[in-house]
Design goal:
By secondary structure, the protein is α+β, with helices and mostly antiparallel strands. The chain has 8 helices and 13 strands. It has 3 domains: 7-151, Beta-Lactamase; 213-299, Orthogonal Bundle (Helix Hairpins); 307-449, 2-Layer Sandwich (Heat Shock Protein 90). 55% of the residues lie in helices and 17% in strands. The strands form 3 sheets. The chain has a 6-stranded antiparallel β-sheet. Strands 8-10-11-13-12 form a 5-stranded mixed β-sheet. The protein has a two-stranded antiparallel sheet with strand order 7-9. A hairpin with a 5-residue loop joins strand 1 and strand 2. Helix 1 (7-73) packs antiparallel against helix 3 (147-197) and helix 7 packs antiparallel against helix 8. The longest helix is centred in the first third of the chain and has 67 residues, at 7-73. The radius of gyration is 48 Å and the shape is rod-shaped.
Length: 454
């Protein structure tokens, strides 16, 4: 069931409430109008009957009225009419009631009470509505059995409630189906977007050929993705071709320069110049190699079929490898990996990731500092952390340093091309993980979080 906070669920609830409220208002109004109309009709019949009896009294006095009441009282089964004429002492003069009834509702001349008909089930009570008229010391009661009206009103009330309930149920089912359908289409689009973000650039938003708004949006986005894929492929091909083409000439130039440096005919100034040139060429080659690694990592699909790699074992191995260099620079390097932490991935690329982090830390942490490698599991996901107590990175600059060729102003004179952390970010995306830079108070902590191994 879609969550209430989703727009489709809220729209479905609003739809159900609007329809149910409208139907309830319509049926409720019809019920009340019908009930009032039936009540007015009953009152009109009683009033008409009472007026005719008054006319009888006016024309022939008490004898004619009594005769007419006795005649009409015999038609109880046909008309369901109730008559009673009593004197000032409450004694019955005429009518089909034996005595004055016990009233349980009175509004002016209108009264309500229950009777038991002698020719019906003695346990069945008949509700009666009547009007009272006084003839001097006498009182005349004229009414009618309203049980049939009450039965019809009850059936009408039940039909109204059933109509409202069935409408609520039907609209709820339609709203549930609609919200599920919309949520399913949005979910498929979201999954497609996640696949595209993870590197499957050929993935497209699903279309069901319904030609509705979702299909139109999917078609437009897919056209944009086609164009982006084409341009990305062109840029990647151009970049990789240029990088590959440059590697051979640069290697030949470096080889010739290194061979020339072996000769004895060079002056000291020329030798220094050529040595600096070889150093620059070496830096250019490393930059090209790193760029190729980033491009390959960004263009590949996530590593989901790689082998299981133990981050703890990998951290201990890389720590031993870089331990001598750290000691040479006056740094303390420690590794804390008490328990195995398996991830699915490429061991060589993961080693390159950790090596880049250590090289960055060794480069920027001043002598006497400390670098720590930690492997653990946070929230059930394997984590690799590299801590140092160096200068750190300002919070506002942490997102930018994960991009290629982004460096802090203070590090502008230092060696490097600003590709180390961007390669780390690309390798983490390749493995379906995330990288986060945070304060170590003082220094920097780089937290790499991986999905659990399958």
């Amino acid at each position: 069931m879609p969550r209430i906070r989703s727009s489709t669920a809220r729209l479905a609830i609003l739809y159900v409430c609007s329809i149910v409220l409208s139907v309830a208002t319509l049926l409720g109004t019809a019920y009340l109008l019908t009930q009032r109309s039936m009540a007015r009709e009953v009152d009109l019949v009683i009033t008409t009957e009472l007026n005719s009896l008054r006319d009888e009294f006016d024309d022939g006095g008490l004898d004619q009225l009594t005769e007419e009441l006795n005649r009409r009282a015999e038609d109880w089964r046909r008309t369901s009419a109730v008559y009673l004429l009593i004197d000032k002492d409450g004694q019955r003069i005429a009518g089909n009631l034996s005595s004055w009834p016990a009233l349980h509702g009175q509004s002016g001349p209108w009264v309500e009470f229950d009777i038991i008909a002698t020719d019906e089930d003695p346990h069945l009570q008949h509700p009666v509505r009547a009007e009272i008229y006084s003839f001097g010391d006498m009182r005349l009661l004229v009414g009618t059995d309203v049980s049939e009206r009450q039965r019809l009103v009850g059936e009408l009330r039940a039909a109204t409630l059933w109509g409202i309930g069935l409408t609520a149920l039907l609209t709820a089912l339609i709203g549930w189906w609609y919200s599920r359908r919309i949520a399913a289409r949005v979910g498929k689009a979201a999954l497609a977007c996640e696949s595209i973000i993870s590197g499957e650039l050929r993935q497209r938003l699903p279309e069901d050929q319904s030609h509705d708004e979702f299909d139109q949006l999917a078609m437009a986005v897919n056209h944009v993705l086609d164009r982006i894929e084409q341009q990305t492929a062109t840029v990647r091909t151009t970049f990789e071709s240029a990088a590959h083409d440059l590697r051979a000439p640069l290697h030949r130039i470096r080889t010739r320069l290194e061979a020339a440096l072996q000769g004895s005919h060079l002056s000291e100034l020329g030798r220094q110049s050529m040595t600096a040139t070889v150093t620059d060429l070496e830096r250019i080659q490393r930059t090209l190699a790193t760029l190729l690694q980033i491009a390959q990592a960004e263009s590949a699909v996530q590593v989901t079929a790689g082998r299981r790699v133990d981050l703890a074992e990998l951290a201990r191995s890389i720590g031993e490898l870089y331990g001598p260099e750290a000691r040479e620079r006056g740094l303390a390097l420690s590794v804390s990996a008490p328990e195995p932490a398996s991830v699915q991935g490429n061991e060589q690329l993961l080693a390159q990731l950790l090596a880049n982090l250590l090289e960055n830390a060794i480069k920027y942490v001043p002598r006497g500092g400390h670098i720590a490698i930690e492997v653990g599991a946070g929230s059930g996901r394997p984590q690799l952390l590299v801590r140092d107590d160096g200068p750190g990175i300002p919070p506002l600059a942490r997102a930018s340093v994960l991009l290629p060729f982004r460096r802090l102003e203070r590090d502008a004179a230092a060696e490097g091309s600003g590709l180390g952390l961007s390669l780390v970010a690309a390798l983490m995306r390749l493995h379906g993980g995330t990288v986060e830079l945070a304060d170590n108070n003082p220094g920097l902590v780089v937290r790499c979080e991986f999905p659990p191994a399958l």
